[in-house]
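Example with several molecule types.
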Amino acid sequence: MASDPEIQIKQPRTKRGQVTMRKLLDAATAEFGERGFHEASISSITSRAGVALGTFYTYFQSKDALFRALIVDLSGQIRADASAAIAGELDPLAIERRALHAFLEFASEHKEIYRIIDEAEFVDPEMYRYHYTTIAGRIAQRLRDGSKNDALRADIGEIEAWAIMGMNVFLGLRYAVWRAADDAGLDDVSRTANELLERGLSRGTSETAR
Amino acid sequence: MASDPEIQIKQPRTKRGQVTMRKLLDAATAEFGERGFHEASISSITSRAGVALGTFYTYFQSKDALFRALIVDLSGQIRADASAAIAGELDPLAIERRALHAFLEFASEHKEIYRIIDEAEFVDPEMYRYHYTTIAGRIAQRLRDGSKNDALRADIGEIEAWAIMGMNVFLGLRYAVWRAADDAGLDDVSRTANELLERGLSRGTSETAR
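Resulting structure tokens for the full complex:
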């Protein structure tokens, strides 16, 4: 990935333009989430957004361009959500727990994100890769910061970042999107996953001694 | 998931029938992997398999039925591959390392499985869920066995199983399917991920004392 697709999404300059673009992106989330990319129509999206059909083309050149912008937008929402959840937290393991918990809540409230992001693998593979590569990059940066202050092992890096991202994505699929009534709550899920990150699965010496 | 879709796939009784079905499933792997479900055609699959078009319908009622059988088949191949890799291994953490390594090798040699299984989310959501639910079930069983013999913590279960599956899927995506020339080798990836499972990310007391 030589280029960062994020810079290709033009933001409207006026407040009113930003509001309209937000409406279109939210309508697109609902439309792509419910009907999938191929069945989704621009007229249905503008109708959901409550804007004129012609207005659409002021913002996006095509359905493909809108889809691309939507992946960037969802990635940004997930990032902003995680940032807010970990703000002020200094302990690197607590940061991962909070980030997972925030993601599980986000996925519970926006179950359609899985379908949209997973469809990008087929509709726009570059954006699919962009999405996961940028998230893994952020996790790797957090782990490096945690290593520096002696809380985490010094030898952790990109492999652990992809492992953690995979954990989080599948825990979200299972416990947010596919949630059953008698499932563990999101607090339990994020605490249990975090314990795995903290001390692994081995029965430690202290525990055996109990 | 009340019913197990696996039992719905009829196996041919004769050796010759089994060979033909294998050819059709392998041809379907190539066809769905390259062209995706919607673009894939039955005539192209029978042509790849070197069997007559009419023969197809002896085995499968439709492209949908073939796709369904293929997911069951790929799940079975992944299971058989993991079983062979962990045969005779008693240490539960070494079992997870070997299972991951076998999966990374399988994904390296069959990069199209990601596309096929991910497309099931759209083409046949029940099979998508079946695939991941059965894998998580197998991992959870291995973890319970490992807990019984005192090697693993006693309090681990389904959440850890989904976490491990997610790790493995995303490590396969990154280091097998999207592999770059200068990436860590599959041995390194499975060892590093296994260390995370063994002792977590924390800087242990022993390490700090060094």
